[in-house]
């Protein structure tokens, strides 16, 4: 089922308006729910130099193709 862009944007606007009004109503009534902070976990980052280099090369090649540098 394909949805028009206008219908999709209207639905998204309605949802955002509903969320905004419900937040405003809870603030005005004084019964605001506390926002839970997400649990902070230490970042365990493994630097994969070869993988980063490969992705960078692919992205550079894609941008060169988009700029039509190849003939």
Instruction: Determine the fraction of residues in helical runs and give it as a percent range.
Output: 55-70%
Counted beta strands: 0
What's the gyration radius in Å?
23 Å
Q: What is the element string, with H for helices and E for strands?
A: HH
Runs with pLDDT <50, length 5+? none
Q: Count every helix, treating DSSP H or I runs of 4 or more residues as helices.
A: 2
The 3D shape can be described as flat
Structural class: mainly alpha
Q: How far do the termini sit from each other? A: 40 Å
Percent strand equals under 5%
The average pLDDT is 79
What does this structure look like?
With 71 residues, this protein is mostly helical. It is built from two helices and no strands. It starts with a helix and ends in a 5-residue tail after the last helix.
Short description:
This protein is an all-alpha fold and 71 residues long.
What attributes does this structure have?
mainly alpha, 71 residues, single chain, 61% helix, 2 helices
What topology does this entry show?
Elements lengths: L4 H25 L19 H18 L5
């Amino acid at each position: 089922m394909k949805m028009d862009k206008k219908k999709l944007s209207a639905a998204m606007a309605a949802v955002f308006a509903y969320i905004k009004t419900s937040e405003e109503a809870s603030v005005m009534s004084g019964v605001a729910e506390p926002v839970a902070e997400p649990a902070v976990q230490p970042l365990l980052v493994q630097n994969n130099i070869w993988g980063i280099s490969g992705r960078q090369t692919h992205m550079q090649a894609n941008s060169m193709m988009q700029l039509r540098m190849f003939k």
